[in-house]
Amino acid sequence: MGADFSWIRPEPHGIHIVPADAWIDPARPVERALVTHGHADHARGGHGRTIATPATLDIMLLRYFTDAGATPIAYGETLRLPGEVDATFIPAGHVLGSAQILLEHAGERVVVTGDYKRRADPTCPPFEVTRCDIFVTEATFGLPLFRHPPIAGEIGRLLSARAANPDRCVLVGAYALGKAQRVIAELRAAGYSETIWLHGAMEKMCRLYERHGIELGDLKLVTDAPKGALAGQIVVCPPGALNDRWSRRLPDPITAMASGWMRVRQRARQRNVELPLVISDHADWDELTRTIEEVNPAESWITHGREEALLRWCQLHQRKARALALVGYEDEDD
């Protein structure tokens, strides 16, 4: 192969590794899939063979009831694919089990990041900068508007709201995979040792995290709470439950939402969020641009997000880049 990287091809339904006839995060069933992490816009069932980290495979089994052809690969382990392509899974820092995938073929190196963040997270290994020729980066928060504040300050605001309202509960909407567990772990790191109450939809994923060695402390279901026990307490639920019938049983809840999108006030108002918490599991603008500088690829491929602004930044900084047109990526409740 020449230096045109014709062996790696972005197509509408995923990134095709041509010599191996394998796909990264394909949007439809394929014979051989490499999956970066367990969120639904990257992980799908129905593949003949699914190659992912053990935690991602466990998440896929829990969420999508699929383990046919599961092939676990540890961080740092290299798997030889057909066509003399080597694939190495490297921590992405997004959620439990998330990985960048380093592909090596004919002396060329391509890193596909999936989703990633650069902030410390007690629930998953940190992102590792990996030098490569082509760097495939997400751009979920690829606008200068998005600069995430330190998480300690957002957790402090949550705890202050609880302390100031002993007769109310704080109801935190958080994505069920990754965000909920991170918020809980950060509360523990801030010294909050009391019971944290869960919507029933959160329990199985939290228990999966615990099986993978992530300590979340005392967790109980809201349905098991004695009458009057939830005043002054913290409750974690899926974002969709913040204002539905389920939440009406709670004592005058302060509705909070943990998401990078809470930087946009209109989004908070649309969800009737009283306490917006800017907590994201994606890289913000400064982290995206810094990562490209640190990786220093010959070319960056930008996908699923605000592609145009990051593409323009690359052009202004004399960095070769292109925007991909992949389909099937959803706007997660990050």
TrEMBL record:
GO terms for molecular function: exonuclease activity; glycosyltransferase activity; ligase activity. Transmembrane segments: none annotated. Its EC number is 3.1.-.-. The keyword Hydrolase applies. InterPro entries: MBL (IPR050698), RibonucZ/Hydroxyglut_hydro (IPR036866), Xnuc_lig_assoc (IPR026360). Keywords: Exonuclease, Glycosyltransferase, Hydrolase, Ligase, Nuclease, Transferase. SUPFAM superfamilies: Metallo-hydrolase/oxidoreductase. This is Ligase-associated DNA damage response exonuclease.
